[in-house]
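Side project, low priority. Logging it here so it doesn't get lost.
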Amino acid sequence: MTDGNDKASAAKKPANIVGSVIGIALGTYSGIHLLIPLAFTGIVWWGGKKILGLDRLAFLPAIAVQTGHVLWMCTGFLILRTVSLDLLDPVVLLVGIAWLVWKPGIGAVIFLTVFQVLALTVNVYVFSETAVATTQHNALIIHMAWRVLALFLMWQAYIKLKKALADAPAPAGS
């Protein structure tokens, strides 16, 4: 008898199946462009579990995805030795991530949401104008996936936090 929390039942959930299929498709199409941010995200997740307090762990997936994205972009800038307005992307993200780490809540989530949606809009436009199966096309699809994932994870964490606060017992004497 299972309680629904074992790995076999988790693997059968439709969201997990859809996520796996999307991940395999993205990896097949983009190759290394998926592996690099995925590795950075995993490292940040691992370190965050050791550093962040319990009150911030709900936001760790969103923090890890966005920090992994920043590290991937910065690696690209270093390899290509480019300096441009594109550097604004990781700088703004780092400001938002720092805010999310030190004071997780609606302010940081809205700030990052506005930025991610604007950046996603630019990525979608550039993606639509880029030749298929080029390096830029392969990388842009991962940028877009990481932005969508960041948005989903931030709002999921915020909703969980809000629900936990609403379900918490009122302090004594209030």
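Brief comment: The mean pLDDT is 89.
Revisit when time allows.
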